[in-house]
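Morning F.,

Quick status update on the modeling queue. The single chain you submitted on Monday has been processed. Sequence for confirmation:
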Amino acid sequence: MSAAIDLGPKRPVHFLDIKDFTPEQLRALIGHAAQLKRQRRIGVPKKPLAGKTLAMVFEKPSTRTRVSFEVAIKELGGDAVVLSSRDMQLGRGETVHDTAHVLSRFVDGIMLRTGDARKLHALAQHASVPVINGLTDLSHPCQIMADILTFEEHKGPIKGRKIAWVGDGNNVAASFIEAAARFGFALRLACPAGYWPRPEVLEWAKAEGADVEVGIDPDWAADSADAMVTDTWLSMSDSEDQAAARAQAFAPYQVTAELMAKTTEGAIFLHCLPAHRGEEVAAEVIDGPASVVFDEAENRLHAQKAILALCLG
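Structure tokens below.
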């Protein structure tokens, strides 16, 4: 199915950001992910990437990204080489340029999880094999593809629906904004002052005609939403002072049962995990009937299978 996606002249097919693809290409990826999920459940083997090797480079810790990508490439018939920055010369001063050229001679694709988006784009610029964004400080497109798949499994087509984001206007929020433009859903983000999405992301969305608005009131964002989404307030890189400032700023933005009650009947709750109960979300919400967070986590596997099949197939 992925082979039918028209990507123009032959070149490495990178998966760096949602905005790099057309709505038709993204819909084909979601459809392929759903098909691969069904085939896995009924035990139909699909090995389109037999003989292919994916290098997985981690500069940030990971549970879901590492396990889902490694299982995905192996179930598609390929293999994975897992590398951390402390294991590589890249972590000792070798340039991204040289690393890209060397890895391109050994493997068929590279997945990078890093805190610096510039490294991802430099890697894609110099690699002669596909590069996949496993997370940067600016975006997290694989997560959002899994979120779209999860929403549509539970609520039907996402086009024309309303999604509420409450909390930090971070990298995941940025990819949600790009998805709103490409998949045609309304997105309302409630973020504290000083923690809004980057201006350039909002300007891009406006130029694309996306139905995206940002405010400071969680009740406004939640009103009549079909799904509520949040993420952690703190980053592993935050200092104690930053953590304290964030905890104070985000305290009114916890997703509670009262906030969920502002959404539509049957609305679902999404969180990319790891979650901190009692901080960004109340335990009764994430562990309650509206929560689909473990379906969402599982769907990382299926969405990334479709992405791997597109890029490496």
